[in-house]
Design brief:
single chain, about 300 residues, alpha/beta, D-Maltodextrin-Binding Protein, domain 2, 2 domains, 5-stranded mixed beta sheet, 12 helices, disordered N terminus
């Protein structure tokens, strides 16, 4: 198999032992010359997954098509769910590759919280290496970044004189905040807002992770404050206000490939590195707008992106 898991490794060992006992040995038994083989001559499929929001699905398609263009066999599993769900699939070996965000992943994997002062992309990436699940690694991160934000309408910002998260402290008990359900228990959600900013909202509405439900709720006034990702075109289209984060609740969020070590080869690394180097916050925002605003298929948008950047 291309994707060599523990079970396939045991099968391969058994097959080798059987051949040795039979005294077999021919040119046909040599290791595969497939450049994407992780060793041992086994072939298979790299399974690329995504979280349950549009940008993650778009990045999944970018990763998958990049690998396919390089000659790999790829399967996609979109919209698995929130990080709490898809990381279980990754750690069980059902998923081989995920588009991740360095700061959010570090926060998720750090039971005692992100080390104090760890906010820059390089510092976050270095700290992340210490907490990665066994048998996994991250390839070099992209300069492209998509941070969590607390965003309000222009009218709400003017009514309550809001420009930073700190400004919420005296008025939050009058406001309703909306985000994905998991945000209620995340440090980079209600927990950290209370801890760092002493901000407690009147109500929390569980919606989706920066997705259409949250955007629609902010538009129609169902919520007053929304957890929206910084590359979301809805911010500029609606002239919304992103509140500053002076205490760095939201660390750097550079896009980084999280991958099982047993599928890493020079060819996989080269292909994904080229994509990461091509990604910028600006061109990712533009590509995401085609999905969210123009309602184009992420498969098509990803393919066009790769062509435009000389990656296909």
């Amino acid at each position: 198999m291309f994707r060599r898991k523990r079970t396939s490794a045991l099968v391969s060992l058994a097959a080798v032992a059987a051949l040795a006992l039979a005294g077999c040995g021919s040119d046909d038994d040599k290791a595969s010359d497939d450049p994407f083989s992780s060793g041992g001559g086994d072939k298979g499929t790299i399974v690329v997954g995504s979280a349950n929001f549009p940008e993650s699905e778009l990045l999944m398609q970018l990763y998958a098509q990049t690998l396919e263009n390089a000659g790999a066999k790829v399967e996609t599993k979109p919209n698995i769910g929130a990080r709490e769900i898809y990381m279980k699939a990754f750690e069980s070996g059902d998923i081989d590759l995920l588009p991740e965000y360095n700061g959010a992943l570090l926060s998720f994997l750090s039971p005692d919280g992100v080390p104090e002062g760890t906010t820059s992309p390089d510092d976050v990436y270095a700290a992340l290496q210490k907490v990665l699940p066994d048998g996994s690694e991250t390839l070099p991160q992209s300069a492209a970044e998509d941070k969590d934000t607390l965003t309000v309408t222009k009218e709400t910002a003017e009514e309550y004189s809001l420009s930073t998260i700190e400004d919420l402290q005296p008025v939050a008990d009058k406001l309703v905040v909306g985000a994905g359900p998991e945000w209620q228990e995340r440090y980079q959600g209600l927990v950290g807002l209370k801890d760092l900013y002493d901000v407690e909202f009147k109500e929390f509405k569980p919606l989706d992770a920066g997705g259409p439900l949250t955007v629609a709720a902010l538009k129609d006034g169902t919520i007053d404050v929304a957890n929206v990702f910084s590359t979301d075109s809805a911010i500029s289209v609606n002239d919304w206000v992103v509140l500053g984060d002076p205490k760095n609740l939201y660390t750097s969020q550079n896009i980084v490939p999280l991958i099982q070590s047993d599928v890493v080869t020079p060819e996989v690394t080269e292909a994904l590195n080229a994509l990461s180097e091509a990604l910028t916050t600006e061109n990712l925002t533009a590509a995401l707008a085609k999905v969210q605003v123009d309602k184009q298929d992420p498969v098509t948008v990803a393919g066009d992106f790769l062509k435009e950047n000389g990656l296909s």
